[in-house]
Amino acid sequence: MFQQLGLIGCGLIGGSFALALRQAGLVKRVVGYSKSPTTTVKARQLGVIDIEAPSALLAASGADLILLAVPVAATEATLRNIREMLKPEVLVMDVGSTKQDVVDAARRSLRDMLGCFVPAHPVAGREVSGVEHADANLFRDRQVILTPLERTQVQHLDRAQAVWEAMGSKVVRMSPEAHDRAFAAVSHLPHLLAFAAMNGVLGQEQGNELLALAGPGFRDFSRIAASDPAMWRDVLLANRQEVLAQSKAFQQALTAMESLIERGDGEALERAIRHASVARAHWRMGTPQSGV
Amino acid sequence: MFQQLGLIGCGLIGGSFALALRQAGLVKRVVGYSKSPTTTVKARQLGVIDIEAPSALLAASGADLILLAVPVAATEATLRNIREMLKPEVLVMDVGSTKQDVVDAARRSLRDMLGCFVPAHPVAGREVSGVEHADANLFRDRQVILTPLERTQVQHLDRAQAVWEAMGSKVVRMSPEAHDRAFAAVSHLPHLLAFAAMNGVLGQEQGNELLALAGPGFRDFSRIAASDPAMWRDVLLANRQEVLAQSKAFQQALTAMESLIERGDGEALERAIRHASVARAHWRMGTPQSGV
Asked: Which residue of A lies nearest to B257 if distances are taken between CA atoms?
């Protein structure tokens, strides 16, 4: 049980965390700060936070649990802002979609308080953003990746795991490097492809008319293209090497299929499609895959 | 009201059409044929068809409405098979995802019966196939594209439109060429990208372990990768020129974003993402887009 959550960033993820923590009966009071004052006001009006703080430092002040829910590029500045308020017994987490850059930022900014910090990535989200979409059940049945540093205190790591599990999440621990490689493949690249697919159509004459004909396949395929631009700019830049490497692997697979189409090699094309289709048909979110 | 539907191909789409037609009170009897006899038996047991036919010809025999729901590459052979049973007053439709090749096949095979044929593409489907997934409401609120030939009889075209509208579909008429260009952009290419994205990950060491970490974004993005391999082999080959042209447009958009990532140009990257994001956030399935 925490006395006070200091929530820095009252968007979809931060707001959902506050609601979920409250729903789990794990917090007495939520003090929130957002860069935009209107967001902080809205968060209080919606009951996501109890008290508006005028700065990240004041949101962190007196908190025994601090959550950074800001675009990953803002992590270092935010940690520096709150650094002087930290005590060894305070648990600090982030929710960033990349972890190597967050870990580096924490190393540079937290110094002797580095042991408080448990880097976290809840594999949840929606294509809409904003506190008005916050949902106490957003993390239920979702995976949360924790990427502790060598200096992270075990007590904080275990408490972090307990918090997420109390919200219904499944916790997985791995290194920041392994995390960033994996999520380049299964999240960052798919977002990049969805953005590029939209732009590829929009760049054509009558692009909007083409889109008007699209059906449910396109709807689902392109859903993530509606994601928050500032957040995804940061993610793609922070994890650029892994993202570009994954894009290369993807383009090789695409080129291979294109040349089968060009050659009219139906048999090999069907084999390539079947390879993808069988794997996807057997895939279940958040469970170890057969063949591992 | 039709006396008898001759259903050739009792899969997801064919089966759903039979159920929807029955639900709309538009047919007395459904005679069905599938290449695989076990499918035909299953279709009867599930109440999708009333009578099993041992051949396409016998399914068509006595029907006043014939639906071809077979992979597009099988269209020509199927039309040749049933050609001798056709009378001018019989309405014949297909449900293929490509239309130029279907129209060409009809021209070659139907000759003086070409006026019976109304090429149709219901923009509906699921990533699962098979008659056991047939659904009387599959076409409700979905667009159906009709691409009549110059020799299509107006009475058949109007009846075709009335049939789909009775199932709750919105009917759009366009030329086969315009259809194939549009669906290369908003359906065929997205499928190709989803297949390639799966294969790009599967081709990596520990590909299955990476997939185990994927979340809801990947789930929706990759759903269409589970689609039927034989059907999509045919679609990608039948519409290869438009698909490859769309793939080129996509790759240009991807390369442009990659170079912004490489250069670390956050401002331009955010602009490119926002371009996609705003368009996708405002997109609504099956409605004219703002900006058209």
From this structure: A196
pLDDT bracket for residue A230 (50, 70, 90): very high
* pLDDT tens digits, A71-92: 999 999 999 999 998 999 999 9
Read off the pLDDT of each residue in B199-218 and give the average, rounded to a whole number.
95
Query: Which CATH architecture best describes the domain B2-174?
Result: 3-Layer(aba) Sandwich (3.40)
Q: What is the pLDDT of residue B129?
A: 85
3-state secondary structure A195-231: HHHHHHHHCCCCHHHHHHCCCHHHHHHHHHHHCCHHH
Taking 50 as the threshold, does the pLDDT of residue B245 lie above it?
yes
Q: Tell whether B218 lies on the interface with A, counting CB pairs under 8 A.
A: yes
Q: Which residues of A touch B208 (CB under 8 A)?
A: 289-292
User: What tens digit of pLDDT does each residue of B249-265 get?
Assistant: 999 999 999 999 999 99
Q: What is the pLDDT of residue B288?
A: 58
Domain A178-282 has CATH 1.10.3660.10: yes
- Give the three-class secondary structure for B209: helix
Q: In what order do the strands lie in the sheet with B170-173?
A: B120-122, B143-146, B170-173
Cβ within 8 Å, pair B225-A195: no
The mean of the pLDDT values for chain A is: 95
For the stretch A19-60, pLDDT in tens is: 999 999 999 999 999 999 999 999 999 999 999 999 999 999
Given A194, A230, A269, which is nearest B270 (Cβ)? Answer: A230
Task: Give the start-to-end residue ranges of the domains of chain B.
Answer: 2-174, 178-282
Query: Please, which residues 227-286 of chain B have a Cβ atom closer than 8 Å to chain A?
Result: 227-230, 232-234, 236-237, 240, 243-244, 246-247, 249-254, 256-258, 261-262, 264, 266, 269-270, 272-277, 279-281, 283, 285-286
Residue of chain A whose alpha carbon sits nearest to that of B97: A215
Contact between B192 and A254 using a beta-carbon 8 Å cutoff: yes
Q: Provide, as residue numbers in chain B, all residues whose Cβ is less than 8 Å from the Cβ of A277.
A: 195, 198, 225-229
d(CA B112, CA A200): 42
Chain A segment 134-163 residues within 8 A of B by beta carbon are 142-143, 145
**Residue A286's pLDDT is what?**
77
